[in-house]
Design brief:
CATH class: Alpha Beta
Largest sheet: 6 strands, mixed
Number of helices: 7
Number of strands: 12
Family: Belongs to the DNA repair enzymes AP/ExoA family.
Number of domains: 1
CATH superfamily: Endonuclease/exonuclease/phosphatase
Protein name: Exodeoxyribonuclease III
EC number: 3.1.11.2
CATH architecture: 4-Layer Sandwich
Strand order of the largest sheet: 3-4-2-1-12-11
Helix content: 10-25%
Strand content: 15-25%
Enzyme class: hydrolase
Radius of gyration: 17 Å
Cofactor: Mg(2+); Mn(2+)
CATH topology: Deoxyribonuclease I, Chain A
Length: about 270
């Protein structure tokens, strides 16, 4: 079995003080993908920078206090790569991948964007470059007899079932028609060629949501978004036997505004 968890920690130093360390010590995951770490390795406490029993790769952003992704694996990766060959984005702390036996696992933090601004233009540029990388990665992996799993905060709710208030967000970044169309391309067998693993496991479910605003009572009312995904090549996706969102029991027990998304693959 390969047990993989992905979570946007919304600042790893803050999460470590609110329960992340205890969660990591208790998880059964073989791989943990982190996003929005927002810290350089030397700024992290030792138990987070080098937790016992884990090999960790941190990919901080060049811009201080922004973005940042990490990969934690129980076994030492055969190869690690930071970035995907982008002159604009490889220093932005948004992508890291590792080769494990038979599978390449990546942690992704796609830009959030803001409709009608330069931030949205940046998001679109990232998406354009990243889709090309996904296709190339899939082809290279297939040639080597490997599968691919890209986990992370994709900052796009793909379908109406992926956010509670979809009617009120049709003009907001994260649910724009062009963003949803791009993700459809990623998941098109004739284009990107990947599979949304959790949606495949839960085809008729509202959600399960993975992010809830800290404002108001969004968490208590389960008024959330599903923007954190396991996106895999079909061979690996077909081996997924269980997928769940590790939603905190209460608002007070949350250590991030996102919840861990865990999938078990029967290899």
């Amino acid at each position: 079995m390969l047990n993989v968890t992905s979570v946007n920690v919304n600042g790893l130093r803050a999460a470590a003080k609110k329960g992340f360390v205890e969660w990591l010590a208790g998880t059964e995951a073989d791989v943990v993908c982190l996003q929005e770490v927002r810290a350089e390795p030397h700024q992290l406490p030792e138990e987070v920078r080098r937790p016992d029993g884990w090999y960790v790769t941190h990919a901080p952003a060049a811009a201080k206090g922004r973005a940042g992704v990490s990969l934690c694996t129980r076994r030492e990766p055969d190869r690690v790569r930071v970035g995907f060959g982008s002159a604009e984005f490889d220093g932005s702390g948004r992508y890291v991948e590792a080769d494990l036996p038979g599978v390449t696992v990546a942690s992704l933090y796609l830009p959030s964007g803001e409709a009608g601004t330069e931030r949205q233009d940046e998001k679109v540029r990232f998406m354009d470059e990243f889709l090309a990388h996904l296709k190339d990665l899939r082809e290279r992996a297939a040639a080597d007899g490997r599968e691919v799993l890209v986990c992370g905060d994709w900052n796009i709710a793909h379908q109406q079932a992926d956010l509670k208030n979809w009617r009120g967000n049709t003009k907001n970044s994260g649910f724009l028609p062009e963003e949803r169309a791009w993700l459809s391309r990623v998941l098109d067998p004739a284009d990107g060629g990947y599979v949304d693993v959790v949606r495949t496991l839960h085809p008729d479910t509202e959600g399960p949501y993975t992010w809830w605003s800290y404002r108001g009572r969004a968490f208590d009312n389960d008024s959330g978004w599903r923007i954190d995904y396991h996106v895999a090549t079909p061979g690996l996706a077909g081996r997924a036997v269980k997928g769940l969102v590790e939603r905190a029991a209460t608002h007070a027990e949350r250590w991030s505004d996102h919840a861990p998304v865990t999938v078990v693959y029967d290899l």
